[in-house]
Write a structure and sequence with these properties.
CATH architecture of one domain: 2-Layer Sandwich
Distance between the termini: 10 Å
Order of helices and strands: HEEEHEHEHEEEHHHHHHHEHHEH
Oligomer: single chain
Strand content: 15-25%
Structural class: alpha/beta
Strand order of the largest sheet: 3-2-1-4-5
Number of strands: 10
CATH superfamily of one domain: ATPase, nucleotide binding domain
Radius of gyration: 21 Å
Largest sheet: 5 strands, mixed
Number of helices: 14
Amino acid sequence: MSLIIYTLAHYLLHMILIADSGSTKIDWRLIDDDTKIHQCCTQGFNPYNNSSEILSSIIKYELLHHFSQLNSQSKVYLYFYGAGCGATSNKDIVKTALHKEFPLATIEVNTDLLAAARATSGTNVGLVAILGTGANTCYYNGKGIIENIASLGYLLGDEGSGAHLGKTFIQSYLNKEMPEDLAIRFYERFKIGKYEILDAVYKQPNPNRFLASFSKFIYQNLKEQFVVDLVVDCFNQFFDKYICKYQKHNLVKLSCVGSVAFYYSNILRAVAANKGVSIDTIIEAPIAGLTLYHLEVSKNFN
């Protein structure tokens, strides 16, 4: 017993730093020696688009400004979860920056999908989905991801995501397949037509974000049956393409993370029930759940 107490005390002498990273922003949580939680937000990072020098700069000039408890000699357990952190080469980009700024840290780099799983399911078995700008899903065994059906990105997949909702809505708008009064409201709101849309999708950077930006307008017009039907159709595709392909989809619960899942939760739950899928937790962002997960892990550390 005394050994366990000593080991736990030794573990908590090391602060815990958690990062939930996306292209737009990074949410950080620091659990200090007294298990007090501190939080901040910095600019985003994605190893597909940014170098290790960029992340190093974010830590040096933004993160350390917020967290005075941290410095280059801090002995910290650092858990970095991020979009684009699945490939080994991308993990190495992240690790290079983290090791440079925190040479004494114990570092673990994981995907945003594992972040979603740990934040919603903890150590429980279940299906997990990210429904935000993009879409991703997995089967989580309480310890790690053991199955992942590829989502193929916004061009070839991402059904049910914000980009998919936006793309489907824009197609209806350009093909004149929506009610005229809805089309008029859309134009009055955005003042864009066919050529501006095509330019944004085919010539400008981040077309997935452009398409997903219309999700808010779609949500604000859910009083229109046309819009409800569009969202239901997109979510039906999400379940058919991903969730229902998992062998145990009707035996374990599904948890979801992301703005689309959060704001459209009523429709998402209705579609899930129709597919025989039970939804458990829906949260907008994983950082709070991740913090609780790592606090619990630290208590049980031995």
